[in-house]
Amino acid sequence: MKLSKDQIDMLLSASEKQVCVTDECCVQLVAVADLPSRFGEFQIAGFVSPCDGKEHTAIIKGDIVGKEGVVTRVHSECLTGDVMGSQRCDCRDQLLESLKIIEKEEEGIVLYLRQEGRNIGLTEKIRAYALQDQGFDTIDANIHLGYKPDERDYGIAANILNNLQVKSIKLLTNNPEKIRQLTEAGITIVERLPLIIEPTEYSRAYIETKARRSGHLFGDLAETRDIDEILR
Predict the structure, then answer these.
(1) pTM greater than the 0.70 cutoff
(2) Does 93 participate in catalysis according to the annotation?
(3) In sequence order, which ranges of the chain are alpha helices (DSSP H)?
(4) CATH of the domain spanning 61-115+152-231
């Protein structure tokens, strides 16, 4: 199963006609194509975002239009991890594991957002890495550079899901802030699916900082799935 030509045409037309208020980050669906991969047969949808000038994608498995409880991963771009295989983070492993899970489910979405380095950009992320080499943790490095600990905006992801006419999702994440932002943007999350990656000697401090200072759900909290409990 995949999105049919009629469904794609319907989504393209609806996206073109959408009306957004000034404080909403709208994206527009511009194209959908087949994407055969080493993980299985997918489709890739391309979106443009006038609010940040970036292009975002959705990797789609199956017919997700109008569906409830669609397994979804909201993944922010990480060139060093996703492409170069850096062991400083768990980004690549989370991305690949998400694709494997969705292929097994035979239905789901990976939203790939162009928010490199928690949305501070690639070169600024490298500057943050240099500070981490001097002993800063990931949060203090961003603050030292004049940024918030995490600059990402998941309103873009919410708008992409609305463009795809997904009714509700099961979210692959350990990040309660991602859950909060998506919920506030009107996305119904029926379940959290943990995405736990065994740390390496290089990523252990990074993951421990996410748990200790950002509230990510590891350790005893890893299996927490109730959304209302997480948001309390």
Answers:
(1) yes
(2) no
(3) 5-17, 91-105, 116-119, 122-133, 138-144, 155-163, 176-184, 204-214, 227-231
(4) 3.40.50.10990
